Amino acid sequence: MAVTEQRKFLILKGGSSSEREISLKTAAHVEAAFDRMGLDYQSREVNGFSECLSLPLKGVDYVFNALHGGYGEDGTLQAFLDGLDIRYNGAGREASAICMSKVLTRLVASASGVRVPEGVWIPCAETANFSRLQSTLGTSFVVKPDAQGCSIGVSAVNSKDDFDAALSILNKFKGRTLFEELVSGDEITVGVLDGEILPFLLISHTHSLFSYDAKFNSPDTTCYSIAQVPPDVVARVEKDVWRMCCILGIRDYARFDFIIKDGVPFLLEVNTLPGLNSHSVFVKASGLAGMDYDSVIGKIINS
């Protein structure tokens, strides 16, 4: 249905992932936008996926998925809604499953000609060997849980003590661990909304990397500005973004994070459900493109 006002919406929020609090913040802003837009909606807070199986979905035309991480972002919820033929925001089940995994995202990107930092992954972090990783990746590298968003569990390693501390953090998470070379350069984030690339944002902070703490606990030391990127680099980044969108089937909106080193872009991550609170980098980029918050939400649900 093309007319937004005639549709019935259900907003899902909460979830059981480590990004639960971020989901609740996203949902609060989306709910306020829906109120201003006069939309017919219900909002439900869920925990485990089993609760989604008993949701009041009869008559619902569109589920606004405000969940972040876990089953809300890894293709599980998307596959469930596909089976019910209910429209939802963000990427479909396949793209969601791939992009939730940093390892799979790297494999797809590399096979598609999109450059990524040097890296290795192992099934269990406890088997990682510090000396071997240094010989492969250099004296400094980054440790990332495979399937966590918002840079949760990400650590920079410059010494054996750093490495041991990173492994202790990884014990909280299950699954694969990715070890990547620490690429120094300009960090930029590139949003895509309804088939258009948003203004590039340059991320500046005082941390060793753009960690969870830098994103959410130190707003005074993190700032965003329109990235001054040479035209040839802009063209390369845009080509990489569209290539990934086409190959993965990404739709509606997404965010791509890059490091630019010596004029060469390295893809770090693809986020298929960017945070939508008023301070998120995706919303900031939309604002620089001349859109207010309600316009962003309107584009998402009507794309």
UniProtKB/TrEMBL annotation:
One function term, GO molecular function aspect: ATP binding
Protein residues bound to Mg(2+) 1: 257, 269
Membrane found in the keyword field: no
E.C. number: 6.3.2.4
Source species: Pseudomonas brassicacearum
Pathway: Cell wall biogenesis; peptidoglycan biosynthesis
Pfam families: Dala_Dala_lig_C, Dala_Dala_lig_N
Binding site for Mg(2+) 2: 269, 271
Main location: cytoplasm
Subcellular location: Cytoplasm
PANTHER family associated with the record: D-ALANINE--D-ALANINE LIGASE, D-ALANINE--D-ALANINE LIGASE B
Family: Belongs to the D-alanine--D-alanine ligase family.
Coiled coil: none
Its job: Cell wall formation.
PROSITE patterns, A to Z: ATP_GRASP, DALA_DALA_LIGASE_1, DALA_DALA_LIGASE_2
Chaperone recorded as keyword: no
Reaction(s) catalysed by this chain's protein: 2 D-alanine + ATP = D-alanyl-D-alanine + ADP + phosphate + H(+)
Classification via InterPro entries: ATP-grasp, ATP_grasp_subdomain_1, D-Ala_lig_Van_CS, D_ala_D_ala, Dala_Dala_lig_C, Dala_Dala_lig_N, PreATP-grasp_dom_sf
Root EC class: ligase
Cofactors (names): Mg(2+); Mn(2+)
Cofactor note: Binds 2 magnesium or manganese ions per subunit.
Domain annotation ATP-grasp: ranges: 106-302
One GO location term (cellular component): cytoplasm
Keywords assigned by UniProt, alphabetized: ATP-binding, Cell shape, Cell wall biogenesis/degradation, Cytoplasm, Ligase, Magnesium, Manganese, Metal-binding, Nucleotide-binding, Peptidoglycan synthesis
Protein name: D-alanine--D-alanine ligase
Gene Ontology process terms (BP): cell wall organization; peptidoglycan biosynthetic process; regulation of cell shape
